[in-house]
């Protein structure tokens, strides 16, 4: 039987988010051949479902709030209102344009981009859902994360959404209940309260933004309360019932209560994308949450395989993913580079 020719690369990057797309370009800048495999849209979570769409929506909310309060600055804007569908359409247009920009950059730098789902066969061989098989000397995993499912009854009810689902709603809620007072929950609370939506945050810890400095948490607590956001802290959500009633109890089991809205956002963290495409089969070490163990150069325990960005969970932020992508591309090219702390 005739053997189809397999394309060979110095490096294959799986995942076209801010970690992967930056890494692929830097590999080319370092004179190495590179393939970038992305199953969805280039730009990953950050550009399509994360940083960029939320900032675009926040900007719309800021413009609205400023127009409403413009009179004290001598600006009269008449009857100010917003068109929620248009806010979402603008967000989609901005993300679409930036994703095309990433495609253009990859092409200009000579990165071979494959629109496919990748499956790792070995440290040097990747199979694509399109039927091709690619070979490489170095493999970079940059498959990112997705919203974590909270294991409670009722999460499947209509109107219960995660951050990705929320950004697709074309109608503005009247009252949103946000389960989780972390960065994502607080960002959406800020957006909706500026549009005049009633916002309730239900958080398990006794303060919002738990991992951040207490002074930041205190400042934002005061600010959100001043704007009318209801904060229910130190409670655990037990279930969501029909009519979108979010049932909660105190962490010590003492008090029960219910917050009711027409949309419930589940913002309880992120789950890494490391299962189901061959990583464990080739011996990549994952912890119980699926996080990949890496050293200070983002090397996994398997020779030639690196893991960057959200999947190593050093810090799940876009610029951290990008910085790790650049570090790895330089490390592979044999350049002097500063290891991670
Ligand atoms: C609502 C929200 C707001 C955020 N705001 C900010 C912010 O303001 N600032 C900030 O720094 N960070 C922010 N983040 C976090 C940021 O988006 C992530 O840290 C960042 O996107 C991680 O980059 P990554 O390259 O590791 O992965 P991702 O961006 O998740 O990209 C991974 C890519 O891999 C692809 N993929 C997965 N599996 C495969 C496979 N088997 N084959 C092919 N392709 C695959 C996916 O389709 C995806 O495109 C936000 C996140 C969210 C959800």
Q: Could you give a quick summary of the protein structure above?
A:
The chain is of the alpha/beta class.
Query: Main β-sheet: number of strands, strand sense, barrel status?
Result: 7 strands, mixed
Order of helices and strands: EHEHHHEEEEEEHEHEHEEEEEEEH
Quaternary: single chain
Tell me the helix content: 25-40%
> Termini distance?
51 Å
Instruction: Give the total of beta strands.
Output: 17
- Ligands in the structure? flavin-adenine dinucleotide
What integer is the average pLDDT? Answer: 96
Show unreliable segments. Answer: none
Sheet-strand content, in percent, reads 15-25%
Radius of gyration: 22 Å
Summing up helix and strand content along with how strands pair, one would put the structural category as: alpha/beta
Shape estimate = globular
Q: Please count the helical segments.
A: 8
